[in-house]
Amino acid sequence: MSDIKLLSMEELDSIQERLLSFSNRRGMTLISVSSSWNSELSWARNASSMTSDRRDVMVFVARNIKRGGGGAITNQIDDISLENVMRVSEELAMNGGIPQMSDDHPFEVPFVGSAGPSNTWSDDTFNRSVEDSSRLVHTATLKARESGFSSAGYLENRAFNIFAYGTDEFGRVNPSMTGYGEMTQLQCSVTVRDPKGAGSGWAGKSSYSMADVNELAIAEKALDKAIRSMNAVRIEPGRYTVVLEPQATADLIDQFLMDEQSVGRRFAEDRRYASPMWFMTDEGLPRERSKLGTKIVDSRVTISHTVKDPELGIIPISGIRDITLIENGVLKELYSDRSLSLNELNVNAPNVFRKTYRMNGGTSTTEEMISSTKRGFLVTRFSNPNLIDSRSVLSSGVTRDGLWLIEDGKITKSVKNFRFTESPLFALNNLEEIGQAERVFHPFDMPMFSGLAPQFALSQVIVPSIKVNDFSFTSTIDAI
Amino acid sequence: MHLTRRNVLKNSAFLAALGSIPNAAQAVIRHNLAEPILPDARDPRVKQICAAAITAAKDAGASYADIRVSHMYLRKIGGIPPETEIMSVGVRALVDGFWGFASSPVWSTDEGARLGRAAVRQAKSSNIAGPREMTLAPNDNVTSGEWIMPIKDDPFQLNFNEVFDFLGSLMPVMNRWPGVLPSSPVAEFRRLDKFFASTLNQEFFQRSYLTSANIGFRYQSDGRVTGASIDSLTPAGRGFEYIRDQDIRAELRKLYEEAKEDLKLPFKPVDVGRYPVVVDRSTAANLMNATIGPATELDRILGFVANSNGTSFINDPVEMIGTLKIASPEVTIVADRSTEGGASTVKWDDEGVQPQTVTLIDKGILTGVQTDRDRAGWLNTNLAGKYSLTQSSGSLSSDIAQTPPNIFSGNIRLMPGDDSITEKSMIEEMEDGIFIKRGSVVSDFQLSSGVMSGSAFEVKKGKKTAMLAALGVLFRTSELWSTVTKVGGNASQRMYGFSSMKTNYYASSTSSVTASPVLFKEGTVIDVTRKA
Amino acid sequence: METYKQIPMNNIVRKLILTTALCGTSLLVTATKVDAQTRFAKPDTAVDVSRYKTVEECMALRNRLNQREIRNLPYWQDTLKYNQSEKRNPYPAPVRDTLALCLEKFSVASVDYGNFSEYLDWITVFYDAMRDSDADSVIAKKLSTAKWGKEDTAGLHKVLGDILVSVQQGKGLRWDTFVKLGSIIDSAGDRAPWKDKISIYNSLFTLSEEFDDSAVQKSSAEKIIAVEKTLTDKDKLSRFWLFGGRIYALNAMDFLNNREMLDSLRTSAKSYVSFRNSYWEKVRGENADKLPDYSGESAKPVTGDFWFKREGDKVSRLPQAPGSLPANGRISLVVFYDIRCEDNTPVFIGQYHRFYPGGQCLPSYPILRRMVEQYPSLQVTIVSLTDGFIGNTEPMSPEEEAEQKSNWWLSTHKLPATLAVSEQEFFKLPAPDGRRVDTPHENSINYLFGSAATRVPSSTAFLIDVDGTILYGNGLSRFSEKKFIELLSVITNRK
Fold this sequence. Notes:
Chain B is an alpha+beta fold.
């Protein structure tokens, strides 16, 4: 058997065609066939702990027969399996249907459609051998070992492609649910710790392209942070000026840049999840009562995504368009689903701001921001954030892997981690300075068996470091 | 334009992107259509796949190798996707102290051999500066055979529609109750078949089940809303009997009466401070699952997932096992993957070890951790007789063969207190304190602290007097567990199922936590919405 | 349609289908086990209803099997002419027999009268399973415990109303029982609220038509009018009266004066309208209003930017409006269809928007074809507005959209009509809001008759007499079809 990592578009197409030939009832159909390859290197205690090569195929079928929906997933592509997956979908649809599938959910997934080529594929990322990756990992752990620290990390090369095909009730192709997409992703993250647990540093980056991720620089940065994080002192919690490194900025603002999966569905079940960014008809905040058009954060903040942005790498699925969510501090767009977009905005696409975005940067460097700070903290990243109140986006979480006290423009001490209770909207309103924007670690996770992975596959983020006043730290934690 | 699939493909610009696909990707993970393997993992041909993989791995230089062939059948009733079948083969090989793994969806002898070689190649790639010293803990009880989880009603043998009707029948029942908005019930079943073989000449087949359901409603009264769902249907290693044999209607009715009582209480802001706190058994289970469970996973302790999930406040097992006081003497926690109905119950773990019962905390002192052979080996080398763990506890787990196995907390149980202690008795004896039910816990990356919140009540002189808004209990893990003064008795225990994710590649597994309601003598009560 | 070619099923699948089909019909059949094929194998044991322990499980079983029966029909039931027997017929045998089997273990002793409204479900389900005597005894037992009491929300009038709904829900409606129960309200006198009385009489009135029971129809119409006579001015300002009661009364009056009403229509539209107005004025109360079915309004000419016509089998685009429509001197039907009638367009149903395959207007297409077949002189004009998009397609020009509409309605669905499509004008609220606000089109203004809506609801049809007077306007559905036909037959047969 040859060493092949992905199915080709033609092969995905032919599986889809075979699958469709097994359909023997009229009604709407959505099929997606995808293949994936993951090369994953985990290491810990300065040595490789697991190196894996994983390949998979996923076939997803949804049928809707007279308002009854059914669907099934398999990862087998022989005729018997394909026939069975079609048959079971049809039987489910006939038997009264699965409530969620009897709605439009599986059918309103916007797909590749008529969009242009994307910046989501890199041959280099796809072609790197495990031996090359392993050598990188080895080199990346050397310095940590020499310095008496312990390095743990993860390096992953991934490729994924998908072919989707949808029809309407009459078996006619539905162009907005039909198409092909492909992507690669490279992610690398490193945690370096003092073996006794007295210090910890972290760095990471992800991109579709290998060229954007320098593994050795990441390892060095993590080690440097670990060394400088040693002997942390305890400082009283309270309101402080903070300089957030780009990763911390992304960790924080992710809390309100939620996609429809995280907000829309939850909101449908529980009104407490109403978000000021989300626009729904009768049950949500009406558009005129939302914050649309008002200044919600500092006027230096613009958050947007452009489909053709070469650095973001967005699969141009048909629901995706250029969106400027916040422009000069003003909320310019609200999330809405496709029906609302059509009926109220005359736009034939859901207005969903995916978790792939760019926040505009300023000119200051992080160092300059530190030097202009009288007293405050430098934050590497936030961990375990959770949303407490979705209307104000109040969130809570902890700092992790490097927190330092800044006094009179200089980093003076390593500080024990804090728990914060703060809204990113409040933070972006209390901006003092904005640093240069850069790519951060923001890989996509591919939930298994979703069959709709491109929905999740858009997660590159480019954000600046920011300096924020009056950031609320509510308690000190012991975790290092 | 007449729309056909071909036309759409031809006309959309994505074809332009085709040029960017490298030639290597044009070929295929080819399936051997001439010889389809029927997917019972006991099929003799599955053994051939395993033999091919093990032989190939050994020939390529593996000192140890194992293979899992898994067939997972998932059925969600009332949820999506309704039906899922995933078949996987995964080979793990140890070469010069390094692990390699390769997996794919193809069940064929050729593919087995390829995966054997590929796993070795993965492992070998790590050997750059020479072998890594490591000794797998011995497995003195290598057994083969077949094990099928004992259940009464195989959800995949009975008619799908029976379950559908059973769940559908609950809607009219709840609809009759004034103020109730039922949520449509969802049940989920999993059957996981695994065939395992290793270079230790071990071969076994095991079949496990996992069943859960989400049944509940929202109750509305005077503009206030509260939600309730049955907490006795979390994932468990049982069949459909788990759902059918419970008196769900009585349970729902109880929740309905409770919801009515709760909403009659005044609603007020929390008065921050230190109070005695009683938590119901589900909150206690959540607390265990967010602290003690993962904190005693040895890979986490040793920093193997430091870069993803985090580490553990138990950071020096050599010094800490046998001495570290984590909790009050009332607290004894035991891990046991053979518990009937447990969500992680198996006969063999994912490297063929028969799990042992481990006392993690004995009367408040850390006495054990959860391990696999690799990490148990490390412990043996480093504890040097100080701590007698000669075998793996059998905690290696992976849902399907597609992902490499990892250590996951098994079924853990908080040993019950005196039979006379119940949630009710603890509330009744409370002078001025807090009661939390259906709580959740968020902990930090070292599991050393966190916040516990849920439906919170003010308790005065043994009675619930008000519902409290935005209440949280801020805690340091060991401090909180050390304030436990009462643990509910056997009758007040319940087993809860959890699923968890680990590593950067999202390995997942399920486990159970059995807990009683608990009284903490003192908890730090905060308003979670209050900023500094 | 090439994508749905029928392929021969292999034996395994044939078995699977067979097995599942059997579940509905014969419950004790155990199908042959499928050999070694477990992938997505449908369960090969038949539903074992002996394991069903509660009446609600049997109800769920009934609903599921019935859904399956409906989906198994080779057509959409709601495109067929409404058939009175639909109410009279019991469930199809597979549903009915399975339900009966499921209910075998239960008797009237199983009914828990104390458990909220549980007994109501038992009534329905006993009727569904053809266990009439059990249903009747549940009703009798409950009625025996209820007492009249105007203020009492658990009074007999309330119980009676609930029971009538349950009886009505029982498939294969027992008309005699229904009438007998309904007549209990006669003895209430002033011990029951007028609203409950009028509701019960109205359900007797409407259902009696389906059962061809003119005696009951007449007596209940009279009783509605009798209750109406007792109402005070304050009663006639109540919500119940405005949104239901007065329409019930008008329908009752229409019925009682049916012969004279149709005679007046034979004379002219004007006399028909003034005749109906003569009694509508009495019942409508202080909030004087026009007849609720638009009778008497005058039909304004329809305008359009793009015109199409289907004649015989030929569909053609017309360069301009084919004269004034609806044309003077012809009997016309003006039907409003909008985007929601297009294929696969989301429509909002409660909080969920769903795709209605074929559009929610699909059921009205065969009605239009039937009408023209029966009355070839009827001139049908479809009026539509552009939206800028259709279904899942990218935005398109008004002209393209108009052509797509013609293609859909005139060619695909062969509607024998003239189609007038107008470009919908709209403006957008200033940025960043950007919401589209439609400027009401003159066709909409002309046919909304003062209603607050901005567009005439889709599939609303107006029957227009030769003099341009609207005789009747309503959503075109299988339930309103009869009324349209009744009026059409009178005016086309005028001497």
